[in-house]
Amino acid sequence: MIHQYKLNGYNIVLDVFSGSVHVVDEVAYDVIGLYETTPADEIVARMLEKYADREDVTEADLRQCLADIAELEKAGKLFAKDIYGDMAFDFKKRVTEVKAMCLHVAHTCNLNCEYCFASQGNYHGERALMSFEVGKQALDFLVANSGKRRNLEVDFFGGEPLMNWDVVKQLVAYGRSLEEPNNKKFRFTLTTNGVLVDDEVIEFANKEMNNVVMSIDGRKEVHDRLRKNYAGQGSYDTIVPKFQKFAKARGNKEYYVRGTFTHNNVDFTNDIFHLADLGFDQLSMEPVVCAPGDPYALTEEDLPKIMEQYEILAKEMLRRESEGKGFTFYHYMIDLNHGPCIYKRISGCGSGTEYLAVTPWGELFPCHQFVGDPKYSMGNVWDGVTNTALRDEFKLCNAYARPGCKDCWAKLYCSGGCAANAYHATGSITGVYEYGCELFRKRMECAIMMKVAEAGMKK
Amino acid sequence: MNRIQTLETRDLAKSIQTGGCGECQTSCQSACKTSCGVANQMCEHKNDEK
Fold first, then answer.
1. What value of ipTM does the predicted structure carry?
2. What is the pLDDT of residues A352-381, one digit of tens each?
3. Is residue B6 part of a domain?
4. Domain total for chain B?
5. Residue ranges per domain, chain A?
6. CB contact under 8 A, B22 and A149
């Protein structure tokens, strides 16, 4: 399978199953489009007719182009077959080890963001803080169920995790104590709204957290419209100076400034550029996840505008990079040389198998987005995963298990996408959230185009 | 090739032999939390093969 598209003056051909990327001129673009369905002589005749005004398009040249395509096909770089679907991967029987955990250390929040998928931090349940004992058991469970995996990820999440900061610090210390005896390495992440960030938090996080995710939506009026405190005041002025200090102090360590865009700011690139202008250089901006009827939900009418925004973003990022003012955007961070292997690409996001969320009470869910839905309770940190039928369902949750992904060129880039988004959109974790897929495919087209441009390939 | 330029990329078919260690980051864990993909995940053995 191939995917052909034109973007920013490039004619790009992606060979889906080899991962090869080709930049071609318009003649080769047309020839490749016809190659699998049309006899060579007919392709030559049609091209000679279409490009009759071009001196460089001759029969000999077209025959050479066809030979080049055949050579790439033989080398497995064009029209490569899908050998992965037929491989002897038995996803249902495979043994999965837990390697990542989202610790909900605080089901409460000091902000009252209208669009919060966690329902203002409490996930439609009781407000609560995780005790050290529950967190300790969660880390023990992770180590015990991680098999030979050395790198273990733990995200301190909420609600707002800084509302339970002492427990976070105790759990980091406990995790470190488990590393050497068990030959493990914890990679901690802190996700915060910034309100309680202070020098002590910055210092500790920079020492212990592999990654810090800072939530801010962009322009003041956009951010303050939905990210308010319980008195109804926007939080922008409180958090921006704190995040600026935090990001600067991170030095070379990873962080993301992460925003959410909604129907209210479909022109979200202006928010991304605003964040970049504030000095942040590792950015992420996500489409809102909410019920279709919510006033800020993205609409069908928004879709073409969002697609255009992604193109604007890619072009502006290239421009800023050329001026030495570049920044990264999470969804455009694609590494074509050293990206994920095929196993990663076909095994899904890992929710419910390699990745679990833990509530303040120690209950296990497939991921943070399923927390609070009793149908998706998987067990607890003391007894482990007891709902093994549910785990088996999630084992099958990948691009090859979703009928809707069968003919999609992007399936090895998303691996089937987000189970929670699919569930909320279709009622099934193996459904397809088509709106999200459209956005994802556009982001991949932009990301690949940027790699082509950065490689200095000719238009 | 006059009309075709090819970017250097990891050969996904070859990674059948070399991949699968599972040490890489879990897809949703880093920054998105709401719209996951795998393409932007880094291979832990990025220097071992192409």
1. 0.90
2. 999 999 999 999 999 999 999 999 999 999
3. no
4. 1
5. 2-81
6. yes
